[in-house]
Amino acid sequence: MPREALIGIGAGLASAVASLAFVAGVPFALTLVYLSPLPLMAVGLTLGPRVTVIGAGAGLVATGLGGGVASMLIFGAIQAFPAMLVVFMALLRRESTDPQGGLSAVTWYPVGHIVAHLGMIGGLLLILTALFTVNPGLSSLISNHLGETFEMIAPQLPEKGRQRFADMLTPLFPGAVAASWVIMTVVNSVIAQGLVVRMKNGIRPRPQYSAIDLPHWLSWPLVLAAAVALAGSGEWKYVGRNAVMVFATPYFLLGLAVVHSLARRVSYTGLLLVVFYLVIVISLWATLVVAGIGVVEQWFGLRDRTQTLPSQTGDDRDN
């Protein structure tokens, strides 16, 4: 068997083991589940998309044998598919030659467009789920599922208390799950790219993440979802509200890029970013503000307007 195929199978098995860690009750299982796409992305960014496909196949077989059909389907949708998609798009490139100097230049597929596609997929999956669960409705399904989950993990709580927690989480739960999937897929891809570049095995050079841009077509799904959330009623209002959260996730990531770009222009950049991320962790409103910054950047170009401002730090590294 070719060496690349063996590496792909090994990466797929590693991803499968990480994805099944929560079921097996392994310590720090949630962290392993979040990082389960990382091996598939790393080998793909090193050796090409074909190796990721081989690894995804091996992971599907392993999760099917270790956790059943449900685990296999979850692995395919949450870990394997996004890994294959990210690797395929990240390695798309166009070569052009200067007719005068004869020098060739490589243009890689924009990182922001990859993020936009992930956000679209997350939003469409949410909408399709809502369509397939019209009876009894996505909100009722989520509420019942959360109630059963709390009953399993906290049986000592009274039934009213468990239902109160379920009712509190239900309004934004599917949107939060889909948005976290988008963010963790992006985080895994950034870590994978950083690892392969550090090991000098990467096919694609390290992108400048603070300079990413989103495609303009991404505004339309966000506007339509917001219109449904505001003008709709009942189940459609619920779906629209959660879809807004998912479609706004790329703008949240763009807002982070804007903050990093601006933070480079002041002193104590590292300390400022640490405080900034702490605020995001403890405040939902801060998250909304960052997403709003991303929307403003998309429409008005905050970074372009601040390029002429003098920098107060000599650190030119990409944060």
Give the total of beta strands: 2
Shape: globular
Structural class: mainly alpha
Radius of gyration: 21 Å
Polypeptide structure, described:
- The protein has a two-stranded antiparallel ribbon with strand order 1-2.
- α1 runs antiparallel to α4 (38-47), α4 packs across α9 and α12 (269-282) crosses α13 (284-300).
- It folds into two domains: 1-91, no CATH class; 110-319, no CATH class.
- The chain has 319 residues and is mostly helical.
- The chain is built from 14 helices and two strands, in the order αααααββααααααααα.
- Mean pLDDT is 87; it is low at 312-319.
- The protein starts with a helix and ends in a 13-residue tail after the last helix.
- A hairpin with a 6-residue loop joins β1 (93-97) and β2 (104-108).
- The radius of gyration is 21 Å and the shape is globular.
What are the SSEs and their pairings?
Blueprint: H1 3-19, H2 21-24, H3 29-34, H4 38-47, H5 49-90, E1 93-97, E2 104-108, H6 111-132, H7 138-153, H8 159-169, H9 173-198, H10 219-231, H11 234-263, H12 269-282, H13 284-300, H14 302-306
Antiparallel strand pairs: 1-2
Helix pairs in contact: 1-4, 1-5, 4-5, 4-9, 6-9, 6-11, 7-8, 9-11, 10-11, 11-13, 12-13
What attributes does this structure have?
globular; 14 helices; 319 residues; disordered C terminus; 2 domains; 73% helix; mainly alpha
Quick summary:
With 319 residues, the protein is mainly alpha-helical. It contains 14 helices and two strands, in the order H-H-H-H-H-E-E-H-H-H-H-H-H-H-H-H. It is globular, with a radius of gyration of 21 Å.
